Amino acid sequence: MVDVPFGHVGTAPESDVGDVELYHPHSWVTKYVFSQDAKIIAIQYSITALAVGLIALILSWLMRLQLGFPGVFSFIDANAYYQLITMHGMMMVVYVLTALFLGGFGNYLIPLMIGARDMVFPYVNMLSFWTYLLAVLILVASFFAPGGPSGAGWTLYPPQAILSGTPGGQDWGIILMLVSLMVFIIGFTMGGLNYVVTVLQARARGMTLMRMPLTVWGIFTASFMALLAFPALFVGAVMMLFDRALGTSFFMPSIVEMGQVLERSGGSPLLFQHLFWFFGHPEVYIVALPAFGIVSDLISTHARRNIFGYRMMVWALLAIGALSFVVWAHHMYVSGMNPYFGFFFATTTLIIAIPTAIKVYNWILTLWRGDIHLNVPMLFALAFIVTFVNGGLTGLFLGNVVVDVPLSDTMFVVAHFHMVMGVAPILVIFGAIYHWYPKMTGRMLNDALGKLHFWVTFLGSYAIFFPMHYLGLMGVPRRYHEIGDMAFVPASAHTLNAFISVVALIVGAAQLIFVFNLVWSLRSGRPAGGNPWRATTLEWQTPETPPPHGNWGKQMPVVYRWAYDYSVPGAAEDFLPQNQPSAHPAPGTSHG
Amino acid sequence: MGSILIFMGALLAIGMWWLARQGIMTKPWLEQGIAATYVPTRSNPPAVARTGLRVFLAVVGSLFALFISAYAIRMQMPDWRDVPLPNVLWLNTGMLVLSSIALHEAGKSARRGEEEVLKLGLLAAGATALAFLSGQILAWRQLTADGYLLTSNSANAFFYVLTGAHGLHVIGGLVALGRTIARTWRGVPPERLRVSVGLCATYWHFLLFVWLLLLSILTGWAGTFIDICRQALS
Amino acid sequence: MAVALILVLIAAGSVAFHLVSPWWWTPIASNWGYIDSTIIITFWITGAVFVAIVLFTAYCVYRFRHQPGRQAHYEPESKRLEMWLTIVTGVGVAAMLTPGLFVWGQFITVPEDATDIEILGQQWQWSFRLPGPDGQLGLTDTRLVSPDNPLGLSREDPKAQDDVIVEGGELRLPVGKPIKALLRSVDVIHNFYVPEMRAKMDLVPGQVSYIWFTPTRTGTFEILCAELCGVGHSHMRGTVVVQEQSDYQAWLQDQQARSFARLAPAAQ
Ligand code: HEM
Ligand SMILES: [Cu+2]
Ligand SMILES: [Cu+2]
């Protein structure tokens, strides 16, 4: 190891600080409403996304009530049920998880973690949030439109999505859905450009790519993927909107709708599926990669140990990002596409399992011989490992083309994707909020409430989704308003369904603990100080907490080491901040 | 989905080349201080804007690659009837080429600090781009008049959608160009406009390239070319 | 301590649930036993990995929990360990993929002697068409669909004249004979799914897809629609009745007589 002696304060000489023109808010409105500060935008994104998440959660309650106690709640008829799953699925995947990870955590953490003052295009960043909000409003408006929201499933497959047999198909529902998605994509593109270009261009002095925390790597890769993948959904949405509103036949073959031959011909429903999944599969990883990154940092910080195999972690992230663009048709094994594609896509899909598995190994090898502090964020990280491994492994069933045949479109699939892209990333989001809340507000979240919230959420979600696989294995299809009487479904399965529903209600209600904690701790939480977790990364080294506009005050940080110098042998403390020049700070100097 | 995969492959190659230069194989825990592999990031605004534009072009590229993929899949359905392209498209193509050249020249004069030539170049670029757009609308009207309606065949629908998407991007570019022109008239010296003019020029060249690609597909040349390649291979 | 214990309980509980739960696949009624075998292989491999990872995590949480004076071990990476883990994972993945692809090859290769039948989906019911004495199915076109021609049969095609049409959702099949089902839809995408047959495939309007299987035991099985097709999706049911060859032939004769009678006036 070479120890380059440098001045003892980790800040750049005045001359090295690029004079980036900072936007300065002048009034309350420009400071908190039309703000161009990434941290405020992050909070706006997060609060909006969490609110949408709460709506989507309530929708899932209604669905579970219907599935667990069919017929009892007569207002949830088939129409309503399909509208519920559609809105729940679309909201959760796009408007909650994508927005929260990239718009929320991306905005908050990227500039702080790489030592920048702000995003590189603050104005565009602000527009991004307001465009996102508009998209949310359009989506929510469809609840109140004539005919209600679309009930086409979150996959929106034509022709049914735009025909009268589907709720919202010939009313406003599908139109509002498509328009909202297009607006969302435009808004995301503005944000995504910021996240990517900021990482590329605004890193602090000394912050090489390989010194970046994995959180930044994860968000960066995911943003890039999202920029390239969302256009596929955009193209699909434009073409479907034409089909629905102007009568073209992009996706519409000759169709007999309710006895009437329609004026359409030749269109290809499978074309839409290709476009949708070209977006949809990377989307899964757009949600997963930031979670991977964040969980790596949570584990490393709270186990006081460098992340094991950092380089492998970075390469694996990149490999997963690239490979995820060539697996899309594993969602289409039984779609009637050319069956020979199955060989190719099954192979690519199972190959992705390898870098993913490496990531899991490295997380648990980081725990091994660590010094594990079971703080609330660490608990969530551990729960993530369990649920993600569970969901990842069932992915090997569904990716392996012939095994997918009996399982596809059953509750097995529902259980699988909830485990892997529902529960697991949400657990990371909770962990991340417990971890960074002190930086955002200067106060700790309440620990006891946090633990209560954790155990109910983790064990509850596992109890909801683990048994559900077996319903699917038995053959219960997904998107069924009611199972009704199927000869092969024993009565005990209905009991199981009722059990799942009850647990879902409990888990949902437990989220109120979390909301309460967020609000209560804002004023009454224990003061956190600048670096309560004794972490190495730059966001914990800001001169003030919460960081003010511009983040770093007068002097920009300089980076001397990678993000994972925990428990370095011989060092004075068990962590060395990235901006600390030497392992043995001269007495009297501070490192933030 | 061939065209989008080719596009992604190209991006992947660029990405790998770039990452390799950034020391992706180094062991960061062995280096302390300002690392040997540290490539200073240029966070001065011109570099930021240029990177921003490049990433944006990757997004637009992906959009058009996907449109083209969709076109290629849909055109294999038996109901497909090619659209006879209106002749005015060739004139439009010429206009767009002129527009690109004008902006290129404007970029050069901005670097040399020749204010008059710069103004002329920018105006010419704007005027030819407007001419391109009007020509495109003319083409639409001709097609509709000849009965090639949006709904009557998907080939027609694709023609309108592809040219429309491209046209919208040109309009977006015109907004940026208009703002640059306004700044020259407000007396901003050419040197300070170098970056904006350069960005406009890059964007214009890109849109020209996309247009030529679309044209080769709408005329069927791309299809013929691919068939020839296929035959040569087999 | 408690955390480690709960992790162990999760691993043990999941395995126990798997072993004792009354919810398991339906007894198979087709030749696709290989699919079940592939699932079993996958269960073994993934189950072992799941248990190993959760138990290892539990062990770490217990063994390396924070105690005064503990310091974590500083070790950025271990090439050898990572390489071995990669190789072992690769082997595990190959062990699942290889049989999977092998069986998929069979799944999409229809045997020569398979009988063609047609399964047609529309919102929200199943119809079936069996070839008449000529053993062949006639042409169809969605644009010909009308109340008296619900499947859109071509009146010009002689092969279509003797086709046996079954509306209302009961498909009969002879046991032990490979069946190639041609799948067609006149409105939206549906999916033909019989849990006991393990087979499943979408019916896509504008194209014909197929699956093949051989019923291996007699009985009555439910047909479900497994692709969201509108509000009636969960009510789109049908039945497959698998019969002995002789019973089946008797039924078929009867149907043919009836469908001739029905088609004759319309054909004029
Ligand atoms: C405890 C929380 C949750 C519960 C109880 C729940 C419940 C459900 C239920 C009952 C369905 C419909 C199943 C069917 O009939 O096919 C569903 C669908 C879905 N859920 Fe969740 N969900 C939860 C959280 C999430 C999260 C966090 C995500 C984010 C990825 C998510 C994404 C989806 C998607 C994409 C669908 C599919 C919608 C469709 O079939 O079109 N859910 N969920
Ligand atoms: Cu996927
Ligand atoms: Cu259905």
From TrEMBL, chain A:
This is Cytochrome c oxidase subunit 1. Its EC number is 7.1.1.9. It holds the Pfam family COX1. Pathway: Energy metabolism; oxidative phosphorylation. It is a multi-pass membrane protein. The chain crosses the membrane at residues 40-62, 82-110, 122-145, 172-193, 214-242, 275-296, 308-328, 340-364, 376-399, 411-434, 454-476, 496-520. Residues 22-560 form the Cytochrome oxidase subunit I profile domain. Keywords: Cell membrane, Copper, Electron transport, Heme, Iron, Membrane, Metal-binding, Oxidoreductase, Respiratory chain, Translocase, Transmembrane, Transmembrane helix, Transport. The lineage of its organism: Bacteria, Pseudomonadati, Pseudomonadota, Alphaproteobacteria, Hyphomicrobiales. It is found in: Cell membrane; Membrane. Belongs to the heme-copper respiratory oxidase family. It catalyses: 4 Fe(II)-[cytochrome c] + O2 + 8 H(+)(in) = 4 Fe(III)-[cytochrome c] + 2 H2O + 4 H(+)(out). Its main location: membrane. Cytochrome c oxidase is the component of the respiratory chain that catalyzes the reduction of oxygen to water. Subunits 1-3 form the functional core of the enzyme complex. CO I is the catalytic subunit of the enzyme. Electrons originating in cytochrome c are transferred via the copper A center of subunit 2 and heme A of subunit 1 to the bimetallic center formed by heme A3 and copper B. NCBIfam families: CtaD_CoxA (TIGR02891). GO terms for biological process: electron transport coupled proton transport; oxidative phosphorylation; respiratory electron transport chain. GO terms for cellular component: plasma membrane. It is an enzyme of class 7 (translocase). One of its GO terms (molecular function) is metal ion binding.
From TrEMBL, chain B:
One of its GO terms (cellular component) is plasma membrane. It is found in: Cell membrane; Membrane. GO terms for molecular function: cytochrome-c oxidase activity. It comes from the Bacteria. InterPro entries: Cyt_c/ubiquinol_Oxase_su3, Cyt_c_oxidase-like_su3, Cyt_c_oxidase_su3-like_sf, Cyt_c_oxidase_su3_a-hlx. Its main location: membrane. One of its GO terms (biological process) is aerobic electron transport chain. Coiled coil: none annotated. The chain crosses the membrane at residues 53-73, 117-138, 158-182, 203-226. Keywords: Membrane, Transmembrane, Transmembrane helix. PROSITE patterns: COX3 (PS50253). Residues 1-223 form the Heme-copper oxidase subunit III family profile domain. Pfam families: COX3. Belongs to the cytochrome c oxidase subunit 3 family. This is Cytochrome-c oxidase. It comes from Microvirga makkahensis.
UniProtKB/TrEMBL annotation, chain C:
Its EC number is 7.1.1.9. One of its GO terms (molecular function) is cytochrome-c oxidase activity. InterPro entries: CcO_II, CcO_II-like_C, Copper_CuA, Cupredoxin, Cyt_c_oxidase_su2_TM_sf. It is a multi-pass membrane protein. PROSITE patterns: COX2 (PS00078), COX2_CUA (PS50857). The chain crosses the membrane at residues 40-62, 83-104. It catalyses: 4 Fe(II)-[cytochrome c] + O2 + 8 H(+)(in) = 4 Fe(III)-[cytochrome c] + 2 H2O + 4 H(+)(out). It is an enzyme of class 7 (translocase). Residues 112-254 form the Cytochrome oxidase subunit II copper A binding domain. It is found in: Membrane. The keyword Transport applies. Keywords: Copper, Electron transport, Membrane, Metal-binding, Translocase, Transmembrane, Transmembrane helix, Transport. One of its GO terms (biological process) is ATP synthesis coupled electron transport. GO terms for cellular component: membrane. Pfam families: COX2 (PF00116). Its main location: membrane. Belongs to the cytochrome c oxidase subunit 2 family. This is cytochrome-c oxidase. It comes from Microvirga makkahensis.
